[in-house]
Task: structure prediction
Amino acid sequence: MEFLIGALLALTVGVFGTHAGFDRERGFYPVILIVIASYYVLFALQGGAPNAWVPEVLVMAGFVVAAMLGFRWSLWLVVAALFAHGALDAVHPHLLPRSGAPAWWPMFCLTYDVAAGGYLAILLIGRRSTPARLGTPT
Result:
């Protein structure tokens, strides 16, 4: 069920962002990436092993840098980072088993990340015919 909910939620956020015009700003998807990366830190602080937050903050920092670089240079970096976060979700329970994340979270987040990255990739491909989208100059 977490797979279905993750995909539907990502697509709902993406479609809503597009129709509301939020994604006309380049920062929309980089901010989503930062928020996604912050959840493991939140879980570690709420219920993880002592000091479980330390590696989570380091991992989050990498995604924050990717979001910033993607914002400045190319949103394709944000697409790649969303897919990379999905890959991290697949192995996270094995790398940090006492991180405090609920058992269903990694598969939910993996599906969300892949769907959000795919949606952004489709927008970027479609941007060629609509240059005003995603914060590009007209």
In short: Residues 105-126 form the longest helix (22 residues). The chain has a mean pLDDT of 91. The CA atoms of residues 26 and 74 lie 9 Å apart. The chain has one domain: 2-131.
